[in-house]
């Protein structure tokens, strides 16, 4: 029997149970398929087509998770995880003693658990999940945040240039980045690193110091900042087993923190050490939280997911410069639209001697270095 | 004969497969620069504008090296402008013990005295304007022209956007800081200071 049944059904109390040869084991061969039983096949297909009619609508949430062919093992895994949440939700919503807020909260938790990958959502679904997250934050803390799900605009491709003759190593960019992007304060995990390099030794990252504390600029040294380079051919995206990270149309490489499983393949694949992992639950003091957030950007993360520089997607898609660019007192950081022939970033690419790190890898980073 | 046929078919299949598999990219470009150049041929502009972010900042339009952009208004930023409110007569008449001392806090740390003194930039006869090396009057709002007399390289980079800072937004219209927004003209170099941050956690982790 062909594997044209693409959804998962438990098939309990079904008359066709013995005749339906699709066992949902996910394997296309072996003992699960009885090819001789053709008589009843037609009946099954007809039945499936009937179900198919009602299944014509777009898959979302629950359907997106369960309406796929999967092995018994992964089905049980998903069920167990979901049942824990479901049990909580059912418990609260059926409890006459529970108040409306906690019922709403468990409803939100339920819907968030079964939502799809952000990459596959349409605009309404994106808005729905953003609204849920805002409401959930409101229910938990009583504070209101402003979260958007702005898409990439046409005719925009973001690019960045870094002037290594201008950077003085002040690290104002690092502070601005931490505050803007709600990074964990305790682990001191940061997207930007400023490497202090000795003159005359080239770009020697092994011997450079990225955690200096002395008066800067130090004599005989220069400074070079690294962060996510938003490669046009990003190796981190290729290795993600769940497609939780991807390249947006405006060139930003982003992560769906709710879809990430925390395997850290991307961290290993990145040749530039651009990705960061949340080893512990990120903590930001309530009064320091930046409440202007984007789903793919600086919204609060959880333990066990990847994160990285997004060129401040919550700012750049609105037209603002990233926080690091704004904070730099020396003008070493230049940001702009690569597709605008009159932009300053294009002028830099066309008039300065620019280079990128590890160009031979073919990753095509959109982050250029130059000197005066 | 049959073997030969099989081989031929095999080669054909491989060729077809290669033909398909080598075409991951729809665009025909070799590098990101080629792609940028190709994609920007039909650039239509973007919907966002920098104007919302520049806000109340008073700006004026300048065209330098054929590039037009905005710079912040300078004269409205100088607290004691117009200078003639105090400098009622030419400087040489006021250089007298009877007059009140002013600008005692200004120390020139810009080139050496062989090259520069006050009147290299200021006009002793009309304190409301600056003057070029040849004595031509330069408005306080166009002070970048004064700087460009010596700092041509920085000036060229600034007009293109490689030197200096863009104000708030990458979108158009472009507004750039002018020289004196970052550099004190009397003491233009950047000073050394302590970094804004020190990661003690990182020290512990790397022990």
Q: Could you outline the blueprint of secondary structure elements for this entry?
A:
The complex is a heterodimer of chains A (372) and B (207).
Chain A: H1 39-54, H2 62-66, H3 72-94, H4 100-113, H5 123-141, E1 146-148, E2 158-163, H6 172-180, E3 193-198, E4 221-226, H7 235-239, E5 245-247, E6 253-255, H8 265-269, E7 275-277, E8 292-294, E9 306-308, H9 313-316, H10 323-327, E10 333-337, H11 344-351, E11 367-370
Parallel strand pairs in A: 1-8, 2-11
Antiparallel strand pairs in A: 2-10, 3-4, 5-6, 7-9
Chain B: H1 2-21, H2 32-39, H3 51-54, E1 59-64, E2 67-72, H4 91-94, H5 118-121, E3 130-131, E4 137-138, H6 143-148, H7 152-160, H8 179-182, H9 200-205
Antiparallel strand pairs in B: 1-2, 3-4
Verbal overview:
The complex is a heterodimer of chains A (372) and B (207). By secondary structure, chain A is an alpha/beta fold. In chain A, 30% of the residues lie in helices and 12% in strands. In chain A, the strands form five sheets. In chain A, strands 10-2-11 form a three-stranded mixed β-sheet. In chain A, helix 3 packs antiparallel against helix 4 (100-113) and helix 4 crosses helix 5 (123-141). The longest helix of chain A is centred in the first third of the chain and has 23 residues, at 72-94. Mean pLDDT of chain A is 84; it is low at 17-41 and 43-56. Chain B is mainly α and 207 residues long. Chain B is built from nine helices and four strands. In chain B, strands 1-2 form a two-stranded antiparallel sheet. The longest helix of chain B is centred in the N-terminal third of the chain and has 20 residues, at 2-21. Chain B starts with a helix and ends with a helix. At the A-B interface, strand 2, helix 6, strand 10 and helix 11 of A face helix 2, helix 7 and helix 9 of B.
């Amino acid at each position: 029997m062909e594997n044209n049944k693409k959804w998962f059904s438990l098939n309990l109390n079904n008359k066709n149970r013995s005749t339906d040869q699709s066992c949902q084991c996910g394997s296309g061969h072996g003992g699960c398929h009885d090819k001789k039983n053709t008589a009843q096949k037609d009946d099954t297909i007809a039945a499936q087509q009937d179900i198919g009619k009602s299944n014509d609508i777009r898959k979302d949430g629950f359907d997106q998770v369960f309406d796929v062919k999967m092995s018994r093992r992964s089905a049980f895994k998903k069920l167990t995880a979901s049942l824990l949440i479901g049990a909580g939700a059912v418990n609260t919503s059926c409890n006459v003693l529970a108040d409306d807020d906690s019922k709403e909260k468990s409803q939100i938790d339920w819907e968030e658990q079964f939502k799809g990958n952000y990459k596959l959502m349409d605009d309404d679904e994106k808005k729905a999940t953003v609204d849920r997250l805002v409401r959930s934050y409101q229910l938990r803390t009583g504070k209101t945040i402003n979260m958007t799900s702005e898409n990439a605009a046409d005719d925009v491709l973001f690019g960045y240039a870094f002037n290594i003759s201008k950077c003085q190593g002040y690290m104002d960019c690092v502070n601005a980045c931490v505050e803007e992007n709600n990074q964990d304060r305790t682990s001191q995990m940061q997207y930007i690193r400023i490497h202090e390099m000795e003159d005359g030794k080239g770009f020697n990252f092994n011997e450079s110091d990225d955690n200096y504390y002395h008066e800067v600029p130090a004599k005989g040294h220069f400074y070079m900042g690294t962060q996510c380079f938003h490669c046009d051919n990003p190796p981190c995206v290729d290795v993600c087993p769940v497609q939780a990270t991807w390249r947006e149309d405006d060139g930003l490489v982003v992560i769906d923190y709710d879809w990430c499983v925390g395997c850290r393949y991307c961290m290993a694949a990145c040749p530039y050490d651009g990705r960061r992992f949340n080893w512990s639950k990120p903590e930001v003091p309530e009064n320091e939280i930046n409440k202007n957030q984007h789903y793919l950007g600086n919204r609060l993360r959880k333990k066990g997911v990847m994160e990285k520089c997004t060129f401040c997607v919550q700012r750049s898609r609105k037209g603002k410069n990233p926080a690091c660019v704004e904070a730099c007192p020396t003008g070493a950081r230049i940001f702009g639209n690569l597709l605008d022939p009159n932009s300053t970033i294009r002028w830099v690419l066309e008039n300065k001697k620019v280079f990128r790190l590890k160009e031979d890898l073919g990753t095509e980073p959109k982050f250029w270095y130059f000197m005066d | 004969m049959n073997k030969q046929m099989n081989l031929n078919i095999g080669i054909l299949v491989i060729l077809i497969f290669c033909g398909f598999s080598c075409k991951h990219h729809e665009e025909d470009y070799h590098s990101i620069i080629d792609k940028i150049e190709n994609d920007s041929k039909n650039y239509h502009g973007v919907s966002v504008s920098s104007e919302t972010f520049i806000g109340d900042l008073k700006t004026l339009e300048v065209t330098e090296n054929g590039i037009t952009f905005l710079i912040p208004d300078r004269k409205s930023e100088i607290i004691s402008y117009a200078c003639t409110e105090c400098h009622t007569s030419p400087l040489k008449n006021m250089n007298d013990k009877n007059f009140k001392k002013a600008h005692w806090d200004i120390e020139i740390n810009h080139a050496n005295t062989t090259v520069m003194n006050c009147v290299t930039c200021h006009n002793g006869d009309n304190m409301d304007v600056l003057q070029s090396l040849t004595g031509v009057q330069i408005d306080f709002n166009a002070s970048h022209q004064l700087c460009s007399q010596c700092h041509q390289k920085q000036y060229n980079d600034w007009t293109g956007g490689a030197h200096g800072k863009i104000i708030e937004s990458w979108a158009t219209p472009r507004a750039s800081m002018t020289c004196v927004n970052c550099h004190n003209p009397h003491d233009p170099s950047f000073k050394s200071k302590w970094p804004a941050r020190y990661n003690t956690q990182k020290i512990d982790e790397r022990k």
